[in-house]
Amino acid sequence: MATAEQGAENDTDEASGPDTGGWTERTPAEGPTAEGPTAEGRAANEPTPPGQPRRPGQPTPPGQPTPSERRGLLADASLSAVLAGLITVVVSCSGPLLVVLAAAAAGHLTDEQTASWVWAACVGSGVTCAVLSWWTRIPVITAFSTPGAAVLVGSLGDYSYPEAVGAFLVSGLLMALVGLTGVFGKAMRRVPPGIVAAMLAGVLFSFGVGLFSALDGAPAAVLVALATYLAVKQRSPRYAVAWALLAAVLVTAVVPGIHAPSVDIGLTLPVLTPPQFSGSALLGLAVPLAVVTMASQNAPGLAVLAACGYRPDDRLLITATGLASTALAPLGGHAVNLAAITAAISTGEEAHRDPRRRYVAGVACGVFYLLAGVCGAALVGLFTALPPELIAVVAGVALLATFSTSLAQAVADGQGRDAAVVTFLTTASGVTLGGVGSACWGLVLGLATHLALTARRRGGGRREQEEEA
């Protein structure tokens, strides 16, 4: 069990020795033999596979400490993790929230119903973020389904609001049942790591480009934020994003023509709407919403956690978010799911060098989501008034390190590089087919490329063996 002095040493920016992602391999006490480490030694150095008991002397995978190794939340807390949670909520509630507002307008919802929708989306994300992150000790970042809201923009107006609520409820149940079976997680674990990293890099590509595209509208904010980030990263990497954020806000505040937004401060009260069920709404809303959310959000969400070295319990996470969606449907919540883009902010090294302490970012994210939910009306006014260039700078700087790491992992394996490139380009293209986003299609096409090339190499190997025989 880590002592307080060890915890303080983990907080320093100049860590002794290489960063091993939160766990170190141990050699057997007797040391390696002339022929190399013994079989017992190699087994002791291997991390425990998912679902298997941990043998004595084995390292613990990132984010999964044993009960005796767990420390208190306050002992693990750090300013960088809390700021990562805050930035996650800021990015999530800026662009994606506008899609929810567009869907509410398409469904002709009242102001009270729209505020209740925002309340349900934020509170659902906040509760699942905080509880799941604290329970699993990994940074579980959840959010309201942006692709699902995009589907609703074009179809919500065809049904009554009670019918839509009934469809939201059924969609949540469908996602919970899929998660409970564990089939979805098993399929995701079969995807090669290079393809997963390429998908994450493709998801983050638009945010990296958006950072420099903002040069047209806010060159001072971009250059100052980037210079601050690079300067602080040399001395204190954990706080580079925080200083860059502060610099961007200060520069934006002094630019002529930018005025502080005027918002009404007040508590948002949810509105209960009894659900109604109709066959047309179930087929036209519930099924597409569940499919799009699972494919475009939960699949990349699990991939992001895997790319950062975590081994999430997919049954727990998907079932919990599905049940949260079901519970919040009568209050207007359309879907709660694992986050993909915003999750990268809180799961990388910028949150904390020690992967076992990044779960604090998930808990902090949940708290900020809850604060945003209870002030839903003020939140809508605030984030719609913020300059879009500022959001682009904040998101781009926060995701810069994660993007570079993912891109390096994607092309590290020479044999799997072609499949990774296909995955990256498809995901970065932003294509949407059948209501399913580019992240899912990137995984599908990348996996298809991997299987085709693997089969070709196996066929060529068999022919060579036959010729030699």
Layout of helices and strands:
Elements lengths: L3 H8 L27 H7 L27 H4 L2 H14 L2 H12 L4 H26 L5 E3 L1 H10 L5 H21 L1 H7 L3 H21 L5 H17 L4 H15 L24 H29 L6 H15 L7 E3 L4 H5 L11 H16 L1 H10 L2 H11 L1 H11 L6 H13 L8 H31 L1
Antiparallel strand pairs: 1-2
Quick structural overview:
The chain is an all-alpha fold and 469 residues long. The protein contains 21 helices and 2 strands. It has helices spanning 4-11, 39-45, 73-76, 79-92, 95-106, 111-136, 146-155, 161-181, 183-189, 193-213, 219-235, 240-254, 279-307, 314-328, 343-347, 359-374, 376-385, 388-398, 400-410, 417-429, 438-468; strands at 142-144, 336-338.
Task: Describe what you observe in this structure.
Mean pLDDT is 76; it is low at 1-60. The protein starts with a helix and ends with a helix. It has 21 helices and two strands. The protein is globular and about 70 Å long. Helix 11 packs parallel to helix 18. Helices cover 65% and strands 1% of the residues.
